[in-house]
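Could you please consider the sequence and fold appended to this message?
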Amino acid sequence: MHAFLLITLSAITTDIMAQQKIIQTAGHDALGDFAPEFARLNDDILFGEVWSRNDLLSLRDRSLVTVTSLISQGITDSSLIYHLKSAKANGITRTEISEAITHIAFYAGWPKVWAAFNLAKTVWNDNDGTDAIHDEAADALARFQRQMIFPVGVPNEAYAAYFTGKSYIARISDAQIPFANVTFEPRCRNNWHIHRSTSGGGQMLVGVAGRGWYQEKGRPAQQILPGTIIHIPANVKHWHGAAADSWFAHLAFEIPGDKTSNEWLDPVTDAEYDTLDSTKP
């Protein structure tokens, strides 16, 4: 799965775990000619440096701090709308923003919060009427994120064809031995696959949170819990993923080898999977 770790991330980030560089041009676009120094401070300093210091505070945390500050000052114009949209993009769910604004009410005042709620409803209700389903899944993912120190990362869209269910990837390191945190929703698993190598190679998994499974072809499945280490030899057919009743995350380490490649094979069928997970403790 070496290629699995080389997924191209959004253009506005340079790494999921390491510092994410925020690109902002609003100041230069709106005020570049009239107030170039303010534009520079807004785009290059506030966003390019302060917001980009997410190795100290995550983008999600900075969004919560910013939204709280704006509401406390009674600022409910386009600035708050922008930062509410950013908060949503940074992973804050409708349930979480509702709780946050409710908390703010007792410190900032009821009228300010009423105005903020009117804007938040618009921002979180803009996805074609499927909010309840989306938010339930997003809340579940947010709760799972709080169980582990590694980020969930981004949807694993590039390799979705090789997964049953939704998965997410956060590249943790590209140096020495590259590895990533891979998160699976309940019942999600990858296809049978083989890490090919003429010498060395293979993969190592370390359970991070939740409960999952690893299985080699022709052998009983192994349960993966936080701290479980799985050594996968090269050229062995296998799959791994979440249990039916649990989110699951593991670190995936690619072991160096000669002429390495990843061969994706057939999916793990529901019949195979359901029989397996019925054996849980």
About this structure: The chain has eight helices and 15 strands.
